[in-house]
Amino acid sequence: MPPLEVIGAGFGRTGTDSLRAALNILGYNTHHMFVMLKHEQEQYPELFTEAYEHPEHDIDWDKVYTGFNAAVDWPTSSFIKQLLEKYPKAKVLLTRRDPDDWYRSVKNTIFHYAQQTDIFPDADDPNSYYQRLRKMAHTIIMDGAFGNPEQFLDEEATKAKFVAHNKWVEEYVPADQLLVMELGEGWERLCQFLNKPVPDVPYPRSNSTAEIQKFSENFHKVFENGSQQATK
């Protein structure tokens, strides 16, 4: 698998899972937080945590993204500067949505489930995969992008962080490497930007709030049944 060719700079809940599905249709193998949750291949949440807590460390990004040539959603969107230094020819996709809608969506999904300390059954083993993943998510999202869970509840401040991140991406990434996509867009601009033919299928629409709630319910069955099938 070649190095990362496509990097998603948008925060979660901006259409990143639909974008993941779209990129896969276009022939990419795309990293996403859901991919880490499903854990169907080796993942390295502890390396993302190290990269966030110690930006001076030399992270083996090729190892982090083994098997992937595209990556969207968190945790990727917190490492745009580092990833462009590593993969300077990568194209960057910034997914955006209305800040009010974004905040409401995050509060009903990511923030809600992050408060559930018993979501994984291996809480007594800090070295287990899912506890390493939980630490990564809290470090990068809850205590990173949001400041901390208490600060997240300051709606105006959190929306301001969201807007500031998007503005920073637009200023930092060279214009010829960046495509800004609004929630609800389809194939045409994406395919033109990536030099791909437009597929003869509808653009994916996935990961609604209801779908995330269903995923969370099924996720518990993974451990109850000892099978990954419940996440599919």
UniProtKB/TrEMBL annotation:
The keyword Transport does not apply. Pfam families: Sulfotransfer_4. Coiled coil: none annotated. One of its GO terms (molecular function) is hydrolase activity. This is P-loop containing nucleoside triphosphate hydrolase protein. InterPro entries: P-loop_NTPase, Sulfotransfer_4. PANTHER family: P-LOOP CONTAINING NUCLEOSIDE TRIPHOSPHATE HYDROLASE PROTEIN, P-LOOP CONTAINING NUCLEOTIDE TRIPHOSPHATE HYDROLASE. Keywords: Hydrolase. The keyword Transferase does not apply.
